[in-house]
Amino acid sequence: MKKLNKIFTLVAIAIGATSTLQAQENNASIGLKGGLNMSNLYTEDVDDNNLLTGFNIGLFAQLPVSSSLAIQPEINYTIKGAELKYDTFFASGTGRFRLNYIEIPVLIKANLTKNFNVHFGPYAAFLMDSKITNETAINTFNFEQDIDKEDLNTFDYGLAAGIGFDFDNFGIGARYNYGLSTVGKERTSGGVTYNFPDSKNSALSIYAAIKF
Question: pTM for this structure?
Answer without folding.
Answer: 0.80
